[in-house]
Amino acid sequence: MIFTETKLKGSFIIEPERIVDERGFFARAWDDEIFEKHGLSPVIKQCNISFNKMKGTIRGMHYQTYPHEEAKLVRCTKGNALEIMLDLRSDSKTYMQWMGIEVSAENYKMLYVPKGFALGFQTLENDTELFYQMSEKYMPEFGRGIRWDDPTIGISWPLEPTIISKKDMSLPYLRK
After folding, report:
1. Where are the alpha helices (DSSP H) in 5-61?
2. Residue ranges of domains in the chain
């Protein structure tokens, strides 16, 4: 696996090292010892699938609070999406900065999002599916979110939104 740290400290783009032959390729997608050697959480307590019918769907920006903050490893298994991560760690040099990473079934990129980040995405194709490995179980009472179009953050979504849940539309702005 090839680990490339992003501008948001502690977050990584992870790409498979492919062993290619006439059949196609083989690649490792998870190894707890390698993740631990890179200082990343090797714990997986829950896995989730997000299937999205329509191009332009936005989900997010979601996170969990202490003591159930979660690290996430995300991979697109069908279609294409722009994953957006936002650093909410108040002691971080990149506090309140965001960045987007395109993940697709074709590029095999994974995104490691550390604890203390909010995460959201927009689908770039119809019928897009994402697979999440989580370091913590979902705990609704610790779940939080920030509105996807918060002007304080200024996320540049690539497409006009087509579907946003009522729950995500009701998330708070950071400052009004």
Report:
1. 32-37
2. 2-169
The 8 Å CB, 24+ separation contacts for 140-144 are: 142/64, 142/65, 142/66, 142/67, 142/68, 143/62, 143/63, 143/64, 144/62, 144/63, 144/64, 144/65, 144/118
Q: What distance in Å separates the CA atoms of residue 158 and residue 168, rounded to the nearest whole number?
A: 18
Element (H, E) at 167: helix 166-169
Distance in angstroms (rounded) separating the CA atoms of residues 173 and 92: 21
User: What is the identity of the amino acid at 172?
Assistant: P
Q: Which pLDDT tens digit goes with each residue over 44-66?
A: 999 999 999 999 999 999 999 99
CATH architecture of 2-169: Sandwich (2.60)
Q: How far apart are the first and last CA of the chain?
A: 43
Question: CA–CA separation, 16 vs 103, rounded Å?
Answer: 13
- Residue 99: beta bridge partners? 85
Structure tokens at 44: 């997986």
Assigned token pair, 20: 């290619």
State the Rg of the chain over Cα. Answer: 16
Residue 148 pLDDT grade (very low, low, confident, very high; cuts 50, 70, 90): very high
Q: What is the pLDDT of residue 9?
A: 95
Residues with catalytic roles: 62, 132
What is the value of pTM for the model shown? 0.94
